[in-house]
Write a structure and sequence with these properties.
Layout (H helix, E strand, L loop, with lengths): L1 H7 L2 H19 L4 H27 L13 H8 L7 H4 L5 H8 L1 H12 L2 H6 L1 H27 L4 H4 L22 H19 L3 H34 L7 H36 L8
Helix pairs in contact: 2-13, 3-7, 3-12, 3-13, 6-9, 7-9, 9-11, 11-12, 12-13
Length: about 290
């Protein structure tokens, strides 16, 4: 019970819910227009594709930790970069973690590529068989990534346990929120549940429901990509207010708050898109509705 309560009271989960409610309110207040619908759809696709490309770059180019599996000079290279936004251990901790790399990190490349393919309207309408095949692969990869996440948790490699082990889990957890022990359990559970509901919806031929759940599933994976963007940007503002972003306590708070901001923003975006698309669907003649 305490574990469940701790997960639900996390700033991460609260940000997700506030973002989702905000997005639904915005989606309901926007005036209905086909052009707006088109712009929202294209904007959502562009945002998800950009974050997916960032994730691919992070894993395959730099500074993805699993590079260390095949490049002995990667650690020296990272040290020479003098990265100050996060501890070096956060970028090197998977150097001997083959299970995590091959069930969580590397599958993220194919998962991200699948997003770019699956959310493309041309692929969905002109190549339905490809859409179905890639969709099945996409959700299979999602399940595999959950195995990798469990291994990360079980081996104590979550950032606040591993990379800031000299700081109490409750301490320096955020710049804005009360002291708490961070937890990503709610994100992992929702990632799994939304994926399963998306699968169930399409098996029941409920296309609008499938679209809602798959959009949510996508942002529950891509938030880590947006988090990395904020981790890079936050130090510029942190230093302006007199804090030293190189301080481990500040780094820990930055990393946690970056995730909170990322999931809140993406939750607001996805619910705005979902609600608006639902309203446009309801506006169609009864025979043209697809759910």
């Amino acid at each position: 019970m305490n574990f469940l309560l701790n997960s639900l009271l996390q700033p991460f989960f609260i940000s997700l819910m506030v973002g989702a409610i905000t997005g639904q309110m915005v989606g309901r207040r926007m005036g209905l227009a086909q052009r707006t619908m088109m712009n929202l759809s294209r904007g959502f696709y562009a945002l998800c594709s950009l974050l997916a490309l960032l994730m691919i770059s992070w894993i395959l180019v730099m500074p993805g930790a699993c590079h260390l599996l095949w490049s002995s000079g990667r650690r020296d290279f990272l040290q020479s970069m003098k990265i100050t936004q996060v501890p070096l251990s956060l970028l090197t901790k998977y150097e001997d973690q083959h299970l995590i790399c091959f069930t969580h990190v590397f599958p993220g490349v194919f998962w991200s590529i699948a997003i770019i393919v699956q959310l493309n309207k041309g692929v969905r309408t002109q190549h339905p068989l490809l859409h179905q095949v890639v969709g099945a692969i996409f959700l299979t990869i999602s399940l595999a990534m959950m195995v990798g996440y469990y291994a990360i948790e079980a081996r104590g490699l979550i950032y606040y346990k591993h990379d800031f082990r000299n700081i109490s889990t409750h301490d320096a957890s955020s710049h804005m929120f009360p002291a708490h022990e961070p937890s990503l359990t709610s994100a992992a559970v929702l990632f799994l549940v939304t994926g399963l509901l998306a699968l169930l919806s399409i098996l029941l031929h409920r296309r609008a429901s499938h679209r809602r759940w798959i959009f949510r599933h996508v942002v529950l994976g891509l938030w880590v990509s947006l988090q990395r963007v904020f981790v890079v940007l936050f130090p510029f503002f942190i230093d302006l207010v007199g804090l030293d972003h190189r301080n481990p306590r500040v780094q820990k708070a930055n990393f946690g708050d970056a995730g909170v901001f990322a999931i809140g923003i993406l939750a607001a975006v996805v619910e705005t898109v979902n609600v608006y698309m639902d309203r446009m669907q309801e506006k169609k003649p009864e025979g043209n509705k697809r759910d």
